Amino acid sequence: MTTLDHTHDPSARSWLASANVPGTDFPIQNLPFSVLRSHGSNEAFRGAVAIGDQALDLAALSATGTIAGAAGEALKLAAQDTLNDFMAGGPGAWRALRHALFDALKEGAASQQAVRACLIPLVDVEYRLPTRIGDYTDFYTSIHHARNVGRVIRPEDPLTPNFQWLPVAYHGRSSSVVISGTNYHRPHGQAKLPGSSAPVYTACTRLDFELEMGFFIGPGNALGHPVPLAEAEQHIFGMCLLNDWSARDHQFWEMNPLGPFLGKNFCTSISPWVVTMDALAPFRLPFERPADEPQPLAYLDETHNRQSGSLDVQLTVNIESAQHRQQGLTPAEVSRTSFRHQYWTIAQMLTQHTVGGCNLQPGDLCGTGTISGPTPSEAGAIVELSQGGTRPITLAGTGEQRTFLEDGDAVILRGWCERTGAARIGFGECRGMVLPAIS
């Protein structure tokens, strides 16, 4: 587990004024990574770190020679057009570069002039996926979401027998993982309408979002060699926001007897900035399982995971309809919850993924599954908020009603961490918009 050090000092300030503005997502204590270039240019994509309202171009910084030694070698890896090699470098490389960047950006840094020349305004950049995602796995680890959706599918027995014993997951489609801001067309597929004897082929009529987080794999493991829970977080680089768009009518029909296929493989959106596990250290919480519920089996139980395996990340979902945009209105918040409600930790997810010998690789992406809290307003999907489409929700500002998403709806996920005695850090946003189905 990551321990606190000088880079987590809430009183630390940067020489860049925008990094010190209250409420910024990207203070000096954060330093998340992405891959970007100047918007509309033919420049090569390269690694970057967010600070205030600027992106620090790591390729340009590496060329200055201001950061040397182990941190300089890590900088060269992080400056590439993907972060795979940097993620493969492991916690030592990650921490060396974090400390060097912190020192270069803090007030009074001797290298301020050279570093300032490497900044690009965030409003002037475009992003691409931070890694070559070889594989994508999506978990199902919110007991509140599982019960809410289970009541729609199996009202008499909403929770599957295995849910409280292992982190359930399915293998997703890495080719359709897209960066925030990418819009997509409503998908087609088979659906079986209530009371019908045969399915129909149709554009999705029950399109949904899923509020999730993603985590990126750092060093991999060899085929046949499971990762023990005590070592799991050494293989996790950091986290992002993730929207697992879902075609519920297609999904519920096809999931007999296997897992999601067309209902999930048409689009998965992630935010561009990856917040490192080091940055998240001040927001760890104990992993607690109620005494009257099944306790994890021995391979999914470990002292440090019990002490600080959970994370408190605040999360919101907003819907921006076409009317919101036309009238210049603020998007309507439809959900607010926290990642602390997940039934399993990300370390347990990784260990479960490898227990059979599966080999993870640097840059692989895992989704945490929908994040829902214990109250109705904390639901992380519209199928929960509308109780399976039976109770429309009303969008603030326009008064429009939704049971599922309509064409022109943009969904915006946001996340941040804050607590007394720590600097607030954010994840930015994850945005995508529904386009009409291609006929």
Q: Could you describe the 3D structure shown?
A:
With 439 residues, the protein is α+β, with helices and mostly antiparallel strands. The protein folds into two domains: 6-128, SH3 type barrels, CATH 2.30.30; 136-435, Fumarylacetoacetase-like, C-terminal domain (Fumarylacetoacetate hydrolase, domain 2, Alpha-Beta Complex). It is 19% helix and 26% strand. It has eleven helices and 26 strands. Strands 6, 7, 8, 13, 14, 16, 17 and 22 form an eight-stranded mixed β-sheet that branches. A five-stranded antiparallel β-sheet has the order 4-3-2-1-5. It has a five-stranded mixed β-sheet with strand order 9-26-25-20-21. Helix 1 (58-64) runs antiparallel to helix 2. The longest helix has 15 residues, at 91-105. The protein is globular. The relative contact order is 0.17. The mean pLDDT is 97.
Keywords:
2 domains, Fumarylacetoacetate hydrolase, domain 2, alpha+beta, 19% helix, 5-stranded antiparallel beta sheet, 8-stranded mixed beta sheet, 439 residues, single chain, SH3 type barrels
